[in-house]
Amino acid sequence: MERFVYEQMAELDERHWWYCARREVCAALIRRVVRPPKNAAILEIGCGTGHNFGMLAEFGRVDALELDDQARAIAERRLGRSIMSAPLPGLAGVPERHYDLIAAFDVIEHIDDDAASLASIATRLKPGGKFVMTVPAHQWMWSAHDTVNHHKRRYSKAGLRRLVEASPMTLDAVGYFNSLLFPVAIAERMASKALGKDGGDLELPPAPLNAALKRTFAAERHLIGRVPLPPGLSLFAVASAT
Q1: DSSP E strand stretches across the chain
Q2: Taking a C-beta distance cutoff of 8 angstroms, is the pair 204, 12 a contact?
Q3: What is the average pLDDT score of the chain?
Q4: Which of 28, 72, 169, 205 is least surrounded, with the fewest CB atoms within 10 Å of its CB?
């Protein structure tokens, strides 16, 4: 990702509605669909500034991996110990058959070879261990945000299903989320492109709007894993190692 994206992440990851609500939704997904064992051994791949550590620590002991030096330094201060730096798909130095849960939140879309990445991740899971991933949905939603974040692709639900089913893991669940705000996002993106303002910046909205957006997105925590959500901005998949 571009340098300013990490700087924005460090500044906003505890306040911006998207980060805050996504943590609540992902926690509900893990609790309801992944169901890791008590005190699970957890690895977060592409942890960024470490803003998911508190959420993941609810489920066990967290290890992490981050390639960017600046983001990794912030994440290490949050975690209180060193963080690995090993790119996908190789994951050099990451122990095999070690983790009960591996998470990659909005990471796999950055990798050229997503199939090889999932195959490598599978070897780091214990038998029966779980992999949970989130990715951006709908290639037709491509914008400057994807460009500055160095995305290689956005996914369709069918495409994500095929990716996981072709891996050494067994697909447990796949679905959309960030669905309640999807119509608003489509309208905003169309308006921005029409006005030539298709920027990649992530800005903090005024406090009342930020709170309203957070409440709306976070409300999906009551639904995810219970009922299929309609098309949204993001997709999740959960898979099991054999």
Answers
A1: 40-45, 60-65, 99-105, 125-136, 170-177, 234-240
A2: yes
A3: 94
A4: 205
Return the half-sphere exposure (C-beta side, CA atoms, 13 A cut-off) of residue 111.
Answer: 23
Residue 114 DSSP one-character state: H
- Do residues 45 and 102 make contact, with C-beta atoms less than 8 angstroms apart? yes
pLDDT at 185 over 80: yes
Conformational region of residue 201, where left means phi above 0, alpha means psi within -120 to 50, and beta covers everything else: beta
In the block, tokens 């939704």 appear at 25
Rounded Cα–Cα distance for residues 132 and 42 (Å): 11
Residue-wise pLDDT for 76-95, tens only, equals 999 999 999 999 999 999 99
Q: Where are the beta strands (DSSP E) in 46-154?
A: 60-65, 99-105, 125-136
Residue 40 has pLDDT above 70, yes or no: yes
User: How far apart, in whole angstroms, are the C-alpha atoms of residue 242 and residue 239?
Assistant: 10
CA–CA separation, 241 and 100 (whole Å):
9
